[in-house]
């Protein structure tokens, strides 16, 4: 059976449940302005009203229009009648021994996705999902064994950032001294789904996240990870301008076809051609190449040397990811000795080659392990393993 490697047109976001009210979360400034005018806001006041509502929601974290005290009471009542401020519901929250937090979230239609927060000494990274499931079926990825259900809306993507800030108590308090410490300092689009198969929602969500008067994360603090949807790469540079990470994982088309089936559509040479222009188009410093280390598959010295040759001329760093095993996985993690030797070859060729420390493995929150618990939680490990092998 051939792997589905292109967007399934039947999974464009479905019509969401009608409450009669528009969810403000995820609307860009222009979209919010139009929505406020449609709801009866005088056009001359619209820009000011956008700024006021925006700051309450994205700077202060307010979810109730009644608390927006610099708006007249009748205007607050109008907003409450026409709009809502809704983020995904937290179904479960697990905290790993290393402090990693994994959230199972319910979105409209009863679907579930996962988000992961990884605290580190000098930053906190939030890994968000962009789709329920995934079409790419990368053979080393547990998430890829879950069929694509639908794209997330921009509000469901931004909402992941907001609810984690809720959980961490990160919203500023009016009147309190300004605290410049950011618990969610970085966002990575590396959760469930292929972000570039949900381009419009991801673009709008990141515009909201990067807005300086709200969540205010700079584009250098946002990384979008793609398996290589080549036609969208230049658009990402121009319309989002964030950092780019590529799920690369192989140095020959033969191996990458197996690991990352989208390679059959856009092969290594085609992908690298698209990447050469990205840093100058987006004003990014460099591209991150993600490379999962699979024992006996892609971890030889020859692979390391080929990798260096392939990316020559592209400002880059290579993120080496020890394979995070899951029940029934068809691969094993490379030995530490092998990973270190591979990293050394890359480093001596002049590229940074950090080895990513696996985080949250005890709660299945590490890279490639995310999979909705609705499916997994009701089955034993043996059942999951049997299905993966079947």
Short note summarizing the structure:
Helix content is 33%, strand content 16%.
Description:
By secondary structure, the chain is α/β, with parallel strands linked by helices. The protein contains 13 helices and 13 strands. It has helices at residues 29-38, 43-59, 73-82, 154-168, 199-210, 233-239, 253-259, 268-276, 278-282, 301-310, 336-348, 373-376, 381-389; strands spanning 22-23, 83-84, 89-95, 101-106, 112-119, 124-127, 131-132, 150-151, 186-189, 222-226, 243-247, 287-293, 316-322. Strands 3-4-5-6-9-10-11-12-13 form a nine-stranded mixed beta sheet. A two-stranded parallel ribbon has the order 1-2. Helix 1 (29-38) crosses helix 2 (43-59), helix 4 packs across helix 5 and helix 10 (301-310) runs parallel beside helix 11 (336-348). The longest helix has 17 residues, at 43-59. It is elongated. Mean pLDDT is 87; it is low at 1-14, 365-370 and 372-385.
Radius of gyration: 22 Å
Number of strands: 13
Helicity range: 25-40%
Poorly predicted residue ranges = 1-14, 365-370, 372-385
**What fraction of residues sit in β-strands?**
15-25%
What is the residue-mean pLDDT, rounded to a whole number? 87
Task: Tell me the layout of helices and strands.
Blueprint: E1 22-23, H1 29-38, H2 43-59, H3 73-82, E2 83-84, E3 89-95, E4 101-106, E5 112-119, E6 124-127, E7 131-132, E8 150-151, H4 154-168, E9 186-189, H5 199-210, E10 222-226, H6 233-239, E11 243-247, H7 253-259, H8 268-276, H9 278-282, E12 287-293, H10 301-310, E13 316-322, H11 336-348, H12 373-376, H13 381-389
Parallel strand pairs: 1-2, 6-9, 9-10, 10-11, 11-12, 12-13
Antiparallel strand pairs: 3-4, 4-5, 5-6, 7-8
Helix pairs in contact: 1-2, 4-5, 10-11
């Amino acid at each position: 059976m051939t792997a589905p490697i292109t967007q399934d047109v039947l999974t464009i976001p479905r019509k969401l449940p009608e409450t009669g009210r528009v969810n403000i979360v995820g609307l860009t400034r222009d979209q919010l302005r139009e929505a406020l005018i449609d709801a009866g806001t005088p056009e001359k006041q619209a820009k000011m009203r956008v700024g006021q509502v925006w700051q309450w929601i994205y700077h202060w974290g307010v979810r109730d229009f009644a608390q927006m005290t610099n708006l007249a009471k009748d205007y607050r009542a109008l907003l409450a009648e026409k709009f809502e401020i809704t983020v995904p519901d937290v179904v479960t929250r697990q905290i790993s021994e290393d402090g990693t937090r994994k959230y199972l979230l319910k979105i409209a239609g009863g679907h579930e996705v996962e988000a992961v927060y990884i605290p580190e000494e000098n930053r906190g990274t939030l890994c968000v999902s962009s789709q329920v499931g995934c079409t790419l079926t990368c053979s080393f990825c547990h998430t890829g064994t879950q069929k694509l259900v639908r794209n997330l809306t921009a509000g469901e993507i931004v909402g992941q950032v907001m609810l984690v800030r809720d959980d961490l108590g990160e919203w500023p308090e009016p009147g309190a001294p300004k605290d410049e410490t950011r618990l969610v300092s970085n966002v990575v689009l590396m959760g469930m789904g292929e972000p570039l198969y949900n381009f419009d929602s991801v673009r709008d969500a990141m515009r909201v996240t990067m807005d300086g008067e709200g969540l205010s994360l700079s584009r250098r603090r946002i990384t979008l990870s793609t398996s290589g949807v080549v036609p969208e790469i230049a658009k990402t540079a121009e319309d989002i301008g964030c950092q780019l990470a590529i799920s690369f994982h192989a140095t020959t088309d033969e191996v990458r076809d197996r690991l990352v089936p989208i390679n059959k559509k856009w092969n290594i040479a085609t992908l690298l051609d698209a990447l050469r222009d990205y840093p100058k188009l987006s004003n990014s410093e460099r591209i991150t190449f993600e490379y999962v280390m699979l024992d006996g598959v892609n971890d030889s010295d020859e692979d390391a040397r080929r990798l260096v040759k392939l990316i020559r001329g592209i400002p880059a760093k290579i993120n080496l990811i020890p394979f995070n095993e899951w029940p029934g996985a068809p691969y094993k993690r490379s030995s530490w000795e092998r990973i270190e030797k591979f990293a050394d070859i890359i480093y001596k060729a002049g590229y940074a080659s950090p080895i990513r420390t696996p985080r949250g493995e005890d709660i299945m929150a590490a890279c490639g392990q995310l999979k909705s618990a609705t499916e997994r939680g009701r089955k034993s490990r043996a059942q999951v393993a049997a299905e993966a092998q079947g």
